[in-house]
Amino acid sequence: MMTSQIQELSDAIACRGISVRTTNNAEISHETAKLGRLWQKFYQNHVSHLEKGEDIYGIYHNYESDDLVGAFDVVAGWQTTNEQGEAEQSDSDGTANASNVVEVTIPAGKYLVFSEKGNMPNTVMNAWEKAWEYFNTADCEHTRTFAVDFERYIDGNLEYGQVDLYIGIE
């Protein structure tokens, strides 16, 4: 049974985080995979600055083409809307701290949401597999925009918990 639903995001979500550019092909092999290291770095350097229980975002954007061949950027991050403290702090010196932190906006619009619960990273991989399977069926009613897709880790649980995968659709 598909656990997907359409959700209309009425407001854009401003986020900050750390970023890598990769391809799905690169992620298959341990030698070339970058996402594991990205999340490791995020865990080590940024999680401690977040409020306990704050949602964490994995944002996919700057798609070169589709998800099969093209490169894309992935940001491991947090929401910055109305957030004080952390944001100003890293900007004031404008150096080391801010240099690897990027800003990215999740646009308002229509998303198809795939929810999964369990141990990470398997759970998030399952969500992606369901999404790919869904969009690759011949009678799929929705078209991906390849603008921005994102994972939302509910309550910031990166080890065990719920992840909602939002895929941008037309």
3D structure, described in words:
The chain is of the alpha+beta class. It contains 5 helices and 8 strands. The protein has helices spanning 24-28, 35-45, 86-93, 96-99, 122-135, and strands at 4-9, 13-22, 56-61, 72-79, 102-106, 109-119, 148-153, 160-168. Strands 1-6-8-7-3-4-2-5 form an 8-stranded antiparallel sheet.
Task: List the main descriptive attributes of the protein structure presented here.
single chain, 170 residues, alpha+beta, 8-stranded antiparallel sheet, 5 helices, 36% strand, globular
Low-confidence stretches: 83-98
Rg (CA only): 16 Å
How much of the sequence lies in strands comes to 35-45%
Biggest sheet, strands in spatial order?
1-6-8-7-3-4-2-5
Element-level helix/strand string: EEHHEEHHEEHEE
Distance between the termini: 23 Å
Major sheet attributes: 8 strands, antiparallel
- List how many beta strands DSSP finds: 8
Described by the principal axes of the CA atoms, the overall outline is: globular
Percentage of helical residues?
A: 10-25%
Number of H/I helices? 5
The averaged pLDDT comes out at: 87
